């Protein structure tokens, strides 16, 4: 895991925020951040606050972050479950090359000091992260091995390999009409559980 790019992150929108947070907490993840809008203002509701402290307030959560080892899982409120993006940790040089290739593909690139997002034609985005402090525990052996995606775009894997400049991707694709994140697999553990959003943790 000393090489980049490596997959470290996935994000989705869900109406099942409290249930999903509790599910990941039971798998050994630590809730490190909760940001939501209350009375028109974004505020922090981070631990040690618990859901009992704010459950009955009308908070629109933008992000809840759960971390363990080299894995970062984030979620925000949505009326239905929607997969948003995968995150890859890359070097600065790799980021430049990836963004150049994205622009050649005419894919939208949005970048700031903390992260870069690339909009793919596959109904999800790719996040590029270069800051080591975005990884919860860089020394940990716990990391994402693979994810399973469904898509009706059969060129997806080939094009993403070209984008990232790699010969292999930690992504398995099943051809289906609807795009969704179907499964994730972590190193060194076998969970065999499904989270509240229908995502299977192998």
UniProtKB/TrEMBL annotation:
Taxonomy, superkingdom: Bacteria
This protein's name: VOC domain-containing protein
Organism: Bacillus weihaiensis
